[in-house]
């Protein structure tokens, strides 16, 4: 044999030597799971991982090997993906998505609602599973008896296909960015941007025709870091220079429980909000995100056009804040005059918007219904007003947003009159 062939033979022997033990266990996982969960194996086979021999045990370990010890299979967290995809993991940790679980748990409401809807993952916890859990959070979850939902990386490119194409489709965002308080999917889909995307997808427009997706604007150039200027709460520090807007904002911050309604001083909740990057804390942080967005619009629009569109979004937010602050003041006065009683779990005799639908703290006092209208005005209709504007959707901005805010304010005024008439002092 020539030395060349000896080398070739040696090469093949080496492959068999190194690969055989791995294949032996992997075959077992795959052969058995092909019978008990064939769809899962088919999905894995469709992934790039299968082509690279990244088999079941890479992610799940090899302690489990049959029905009797299924609980020994490791359920991989983000760190397992990070072993091979460090860049994406690091980008992810710098973005807002990495805080999803912590921000959920920072809400007082989370701890009075059923666990099935939190740790169980069908409710708040289904969407807020997007987020890295701390060791303490994982422990708490296990102690409550929930052991799935350990990974955020399978939310956009779902297991076990882990497909980049799937993650690049705006549909990948729909499951969470929809519905009551953040209908970005509905707004985008029926906007000019989304319509064009749909027509183009059907092959009816030239492939060069442009149509921005969620990913194009929010995860540009394949980054996994996501953040916007205003964020979800639509507030920021420092307060605006405009006096009326600053006053309205102060009222809103009190109702969010981050400013003490009596003294106007920051509360402990402000530190929580800061820790999870819920609001931009300086003008510069806000402007950085805004400028990034303008440069994205500038791919297809003039910069001037983009600036004007987003500035109008800010100014509609200011007008929406004025309506909301008026409503908060009315409800706050009912607390002050003891027409609504302070619920035990509230820190102040003042509306607390972060108790969500259990505003009034779930108190049996029927009068707290006015609180729920206030909550709806904030969480459903104020959100739609400005989110609709930013997502270029006329109907959401007006009919589902602004118009509904004015309706809520009307209802609150009328209820206030009735409540005050029924509950005259001394009655
Ligand atoms: C002889 C059959 C068999 C073999 C071999 C096998 N499994 Fe399983 N596996 C099962 C069964 C049965 C279950 C439980 C399925 C159920 O609950 O319906 C299971 C469950 C699992 C689960 C889910 C655990 C959970 O908590 O829900 C994972 C992950 C898993 N197997 C991965 C693997 C990996 C990785 C290997 C190889 C190292 C492997 N399996 C080998 C039969 C097998
Ligand atoms: C690249 C990593 C990776 C590979 C490879 C992988 N899995 Fe998984 N698997 C995951 C992740 C992530 C989860 C979700 C864990 C969680 O939610 O806690 C999961 C969950 C599961 C579950 C439980 C949840 C369910 O939907 O039933 C089973 C069973 C499972 N995998 C089987 C397999 C089998 C069989 C293979 C090989 C054919 C495999 N996995 C390969 C990452 C992987
Ligand atoms: C042992 C290393 C390893 C681990 C662990 C691993 N991957 Fe991968 N992953 C790869 C390799 C290799 C590729 C293929 C790269 C290529 O072909 O360009 C890949 C490709 C991908 C792709 C791109 C697929 C495509 O359609 O182009 C995604 C998404 C992905 N992995 C997600 C994950 C997630 C999520 C996890 C954790 C649940 C994970 N990976 C765990 C090695 C790994
Ligand atoms: C349908 C998926 C979904 C459900 C259900 C859901 N959320 Fe969210 N939540 C999101 C998304 C998406 C965002 C980001 C929205 C945005 O920025 O416009 C968000 C934002 C938040 C934020 C603000 C985070 C920040 O830093 O700005 C908090 C707090 C929050 N949700 C708490 C909750 C609570 C509490 C529940 C249950 C009562 C809940 N969510 C239910 C998807 C969901
Ligand atoms: C043409 C670009 C563009 C597209 C496409 C787009 N967005 Fe946005 N998005 C924006 C702008 C602009 C803002 C407001 C940024 C700011 O605060 O300055 C925003 C804000 C957001 C926010 C923060 C809360 C809010 O709504 O104001 C979330 C969450 C969001 N977008 C998700 C999505 C999702 C999901 C999709 C796809 C269904 C999507 N966006 C499509 C431009 C876009
Ligand atoms: C919010 C949705 C989303 C989440 C969550 C997400 N990804 Fe991705 N991922 C994407 C998108 C979109 C792409 C396609 C990027 C591109 O090429 O433009 C992608 C691509 C990838 C790729 C392929 C990169 C390449 O260029 O081949 C890998 C690897 C990957 N993601 C790993 C991860 C890991 C690890 C996590 C968890 C830390 C994660 N992803 C979480 C949306 C997501
Ligand atoms: C599994 C649910 C889920 C999916 C899927 C998802 N998101 Fe999110 N997204 C969230 C949650 C929850 C938050 C709020 C995180 C927090 O609490 O900080 C969020 C926040 C955001 C924000 C930040 C808004 C801010 O506060 O500045 C943007 C932008 C965003 N998502 C875009 C996307 C895009 C684009 C996709 C699809 C590629 C996507 N998301 C897919 C759940 C999801
Ligand atoms: C990838 C290209 C692309 C990007 C990026 C993009 N747009 Fe567009 N946009 C379009 C196209 C194409 C239209 C349809 C133009 C028409 O109506 O004739 C459009 C329409 C609009 C419209 C509606 C115009 C009308 O007359 O109804 C507004 C407003 C708008 N875009 C604002 C923005 C803003 C703000 C951004 C950045 C946050 C942005 N766009 C990013 C391509 C883009």
CATH class of the domain at 173-422: Mainly Alpha
Distance between the termini: 109 Å
Provide the list of bound ligands, each named once: heme C
Main sheet, how many strands, which sense, barrel?
none
Number of strands: 0
Explained architecture:
Among the domains are: 94-139, no CATH class; 173-422, Hydroxylamine Oxidoreductase, Chain A, domain 2 (Up-down Bundle). The termini are far apart. Residues 1-22 have low confidence and may be disordered. Helix content is 55%, strand content 0%. The chain has 20 helices and no strands. By secondary structure, it is mainly α. The protein has helices at residues 3-36, 38-45, 48-51, 56-60, 78-82, 86-94, 100-105, 124-127, 135-143, 164-168, 171-174, 184-189, 192-201, 214-218, 243-255, 268-275, 283-297, 303-336, 369-390, 394-422. The longest helix has 34 residues, at 3-36. Bound molecules: heme C (8 copies). One heme C binds next to helix 13, helix 14, helix 17 and helix 18.
Give a short synopsis of this structure.
The protein has helices spanning 3-36, 38-45, 48-51, 56-60, 78-82, 86-94, 100-105, 124-127, 135-143, 164-168, 171-174, 184-189, 192-201, 214-218, 243-255, 268-275, 283-297, 303-336, 369-390, 394-422.
Secondary-structure map:
Layout: H1 3-36, H2 38-45, H3 48-51, H4 56-60, H5 78-82, H6 86-94, H7 100-105, H8 124-127, H9 135-143, H10 164-168, H11 171-174, H12 184-189, H13 192-201, H14 214-218, H15 243-255, H16 268-275, H17 283-297, H18 303-336, H19 369-390, H20 394-422
Bound molecules: heme C (HEC) (8 copies).
């Amino acid at each position: 044999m020539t030395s060349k062939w000896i080398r070739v033979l040696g090469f093949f022997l080496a492959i068999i030597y190194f690969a055989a033990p791995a294949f032996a266990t992997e075959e077992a996982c795959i052969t058995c799971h092909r019978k008990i969960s064939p769809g899962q194996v088919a999905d894995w086979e469709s992934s790039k991982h299968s082509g690279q021999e990244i088999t079941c045990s890479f992610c799940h370990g090899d302690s489990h090997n049959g029905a009797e010890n299924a609980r020994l299979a490791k359920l991989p967290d983000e760190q397992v993906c990070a072993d091979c995809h460090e860049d994406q993991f690091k980008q992810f940790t710098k973005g807002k998505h990495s805080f999803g679980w912590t921000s959920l748990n920072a809400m007082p409401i989370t701890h009075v609602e059923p666990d099935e809807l939190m740790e169980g993952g069908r409710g708040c916890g289904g969407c807020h599973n997007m987020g890295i859990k701390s060791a303490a959070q994982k422990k708490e979850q296990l102690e409550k008896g929930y052991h799935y939902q350990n990974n955020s990386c399978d939310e956009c490119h779902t297991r076990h296909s882990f497909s980049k194409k799937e993650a690049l489709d705006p549909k990948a965002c729909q499951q969470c960015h929809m519905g009551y308080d953040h209908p970005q999917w509905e707004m985008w889909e029926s906007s000019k941007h989304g319509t064009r995307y749909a027509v183009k997808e059907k092959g009816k427009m030239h492939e060069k025709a442009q149509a921005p997706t969620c990913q194009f604007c929010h995860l540009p150039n394949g980054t996994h870091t996501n953040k916007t200027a205003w964020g979800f709460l639509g507030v920021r520090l420092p307060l605006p220079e405009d006096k009326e807007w600053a006053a309205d904002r102060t009222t809103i911050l009190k109702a969010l429980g981050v400013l003490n309604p009596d003294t106007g001083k920051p509360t402990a909740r402000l530190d929580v909000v800061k820790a999870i990057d819920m609001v931009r804390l300086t003008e510069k942080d806000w402007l950085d995100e805004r400028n990034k967005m303008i440069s994205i619009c500038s791919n297809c629009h003039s910069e001037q056009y983009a600036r004007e569109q987003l500035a109008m979004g800010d100014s509609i937010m200011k007008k929406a804040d004025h309506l909301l602050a008026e409503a908060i003041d009315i409800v706050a006065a009912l607390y002050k005059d003891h027409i609504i009683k302070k619920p035990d779990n509230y820190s102040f005799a003042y509306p607390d918007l972060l108790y969500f639908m259990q505003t009034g703290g779930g108190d049996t006092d029927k009068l707290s219904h006015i609180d729920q209208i206030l909550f709806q005005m904030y969480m459903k209709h104020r959100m739609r007003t400005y989110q609709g504007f930013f997502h270029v959707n006329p109907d959401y901005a007006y009919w589902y947003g602004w118009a509904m805010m004015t309706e809520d304010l009307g209802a609150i005024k009328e209820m206030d009159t009735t409540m005050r008439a029924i509950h005259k002092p001394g009655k």
